[in-house]
Design a protein that fits this description.
The protein is α/β, with parallel strands linked by helices. The protein is built from 15 helices and 17 strands. The chain has a 6-stranded parallel beta sheet with strand order 2-7-1-8-9-10, with helices on both faces. Strands 12-17-16-15-14 form a 5-stranded mixed beta sheet, sandwiched between helices. A two-stranded parallel ribbon has the order 3-6. Helix 1 (14-27) runs parallel beside helix 2.
Length: 352
């Protein structure tokens, strides 16, 4: 039996859901294999570009499979460019994925596949997640976000696109404000249209946001403070494009936030250090603030990060990072498992 966990867009919790389902299957006594046919969450290490998710799967599931087996296609920007130039053979890629899948499945009762990026990632070489599901005879669990009723247009489009391969939908990281309406109105509507809903998982603080250290790593930022802790959790950003007086009023109304502003805006930076909800200062433009300001930040235990990009570019990149709610470690997967047990039908997903 094979499940493919995919999504309508990036950063919806696919990895946490996929690995939590794999752990649940293991707890049933099943031998579980994992595969991410297209590696998209890439990092460079020891001269190789690899996806982080198969590495985490090895740790969480305690499996010995090699990374190249679990990740037969590294869907990097170089790969995409070569595919556009006609230097990648789609049929050869399909054969490679099939061969690695069959080798992993030989010693497994169940295979859990994780989609890459969004539902349509891989279309350049005819390997979207729908194509993967067809190729490997997988049933699809579609993980989707929800903020407002209009989001259901995309869910219905995805359901039509996946056709008979769709087992059902799992709503993840739903805000408190949207949760009741989703459960009372949207879920019955979807099920009336023939789209099964496996559950509605609320937004959870343990899974939301990223730490200051993770943000710095993702952005390639310099950490200008050496003593201020970087394990604080960031859930939102505030842009300091106002006067110091206006900034202080706004910053006092937020929590678990990072202020993004130019490194030359000393007045706004100083105001931010008086707001208890600011966990981090993310300074842009490559402007290093005066040492006196850094000293105040150290004293307030507020880390200061510096990037060379402008404020808008930095905000766009930072919001993409924070939306991901990185599946960081075994604790993250365990927490998702708890949420699935409380708010979703795990048995239905595994038996879809």
């Amino acid at each position: 039996m094979t499940l493919l966990v995919t999504s309508t867009e990036e950063s919806t919790g696919k990895t946490a859901v996929a690995l939590a389902l794999a752990k649940a299957a293991q707890e049933r006594g099943e031998r579980v294999g994992y595969m991410k046919p297209k590696g998209t969450r890439l990092q460079s290490s020891v001269g190789k570009t690899l996806d982080e998710d198969p590495l985490l799967a090895r740790e969480v599931l305690d499996i010995d499979s090699q990374t190249h087996e679990m990740e037969p296609v590294v869907y990097s920007s170089t790969f995409i460019q070569e595919a556009i130039r006609g230097r990648e053979d789609p049929e050869a890629l399909r054969e490679r994925i099939t061969e690695e899948f069959e080798a992993l499945a030989e010693d497994s009762d169940r295979m859990i596949l994780e989609g890459g990026g969004s539902l349509t990632t891989g279309g350049i070489v005819g390997l979207t997640d729908r194509d993967i599901a067809e190729l490997l005879d997988a049933t699809v669990v579609l993980v989707v976000p929800y903020a407002q009723p209009s989001d259901i247009d995309e869910v219905l489009a995805a359901a039509e696109y996946l056709g008979d391969r769709l087992g059902g939908v799992l709503f993840n990281a739903v805000s408190d404000a949207a949760f009741d309406g989703l459960a009372s109105d949207v879920v019955p509507f979807l099920e009336g249209r023939g789209v099964r809903v496996f559950g509605t998982v609320p937004r959870d603080r343990d899974l939301a946001g990223v730490t200051v250290a993770e943000l710095a790593s993702e952005l390639g930022a310099d950490v200008l403070t050496s003593e201020a802790p970087t394990d604080g959790l960031l859930e939102r950003f505030v842009v300091g494009a106002m006067t110091a007086g206006e900034a202080l009023g706004q910053l006092r109304r937020v929590r678990d936030a990072a202020l993004i502003t130019g490194g030359d805006r000393t007045d706004v930076v100083t105001a931010a250090l008086e707001a208890s909800g600011i966990e981090c200062l993310l300074l842009t433009g490559g402007f290093r603030p005066p040492e006196a300001v850094l000293g105040r930040a150290e004293a307030a235990d507020v880390p200061v990060l510096l990037v060379g990009a402008d404020t808008k570019t930095t905000l766009d990149r930072a919001e993409k990072v924070i939306r991901s709610g990185r599946t960081r470690d075994t604790h993250t997967v365990e927490r998702m498992g708890e949420l699935l047990r409380d708010y979703a039908d795990i048995d239905a997903m595994l038996e879809a």
